[in-house]
Design goal:
The chain is of the alpha+beta class. 52% of the residues lie in helices and 11% in strands. It folds into two domains: 76 residues; 134 residues, 60s Ribosomal Protein L30, Chain: A (2-Layer Sandwich), CATH 3.30.1330.60.
Length: 247
């Protein structure tokens, strides 16, 4: 009888132990509640409308999960509760912003001078150094573009050419170096490098001011030793221009 009673006592003790082990800790339940609160907030677009508040709640949730992994159950529960409160704030913020009246879209008025802006910078034969006298013209263009950039969003496309003499590969490389020099001057004087794109066409046909074709004469072909600077209001893409580069 004593043996049977002892065996029953062991079974009861084991059952109690298993029961305790299988019961989830309060921290686990609190983290689950916090996760649901985040889902509810996201359903109201809080991750977009109130990103700062939503991201704070996400960070708190991650902190609670790490504490739980480290066995800090009590602290994990505290942080999980904080997560739920932050998620609720994010949700309320999103609901409030969605209820605000939509502001009418005001169409930007762009000056015609900026819409049609285009200037050219000229270089000497077989050189990527800006010609003497061209820098003053470029400085005036930079001053105008920098002023316009305060109120208008636009991009700059630098299209670079070479004259006829030379191999296609050498001319393409020279055209690219001319574009890089021009971009350097623009960006060093206050225009965002991230909004400047380059299109190096080398000795491919270009339109001259006189409408004449390339002659192979250094003097007459000066018109093609240039970089055109053009204003665009949509970002250029390589799909549209296969020679486009933004290195």
């Amino acid at each position: 009888m004593k043996r049977i009673a002892f065996a029953l006592l062991i079974l009861v003790a084991c059952g109690m132990f298993v029961g305790c082990a299988s019961a989830p800790s309060p921290a686990v339940e609190q983290i689950a509640v916090a996760k649901q609160a985040l889902l509810d907030a996201k359903a109201e677009n809080a991750d977009k409308l109130c990103a700062d508040e939503y991201q704070s709640a996400e960070m708190k949730l991650r902190q609670a999960e790490l504490l739980l992994q480290d066995g800090e159950n009590d602290q994990a529960g505290v942080v999980a509760t904080q997560t739920g409160k932050l998620a609720e704030l994010a949700k309320k913020c999103a609901i409030a912003r969605k209820s605000q009246p939509t502001q009418p879209v005001v169409e930007e008025v762009v000056p015609d001078e900026l819409k049609n802006f285009k200037t050219s910078v000229y270089f000497d034969y077989n050189s990527n150094t800006i010609r003497v006298g061209e820098r003053e013209k470029l400085d005036k263009a930079i001053e105008y573009l920098r002023k316009m950039s305060k109120d208008h969003k636009f991009y700059l496309l630098l299209t670079s050419y070479c004259d006829a003499p030379g191999t296609p590969g050498a001319n393409a490389d020279l055209a690219k170096r001319r574009a890089l020099v021009t971009r350097f001057v623009l960006s060093e004087n206050g225009l965002s490098k991230n909004r400047i794109y380059m299109q190096a066409l080398g000795s491919k046909p270009a339109t001259s001011a006189t409408g004449e074709g390339k002659t192979g004469s250094r003097k007459k072909d000066q018109e093609w030793r240039r970089v055109d600077i053009t204003v665009l209001f949509t970002r250029p893409t390589s799909v549209v221009m296969d020679t486009l580069t933004k290195e």
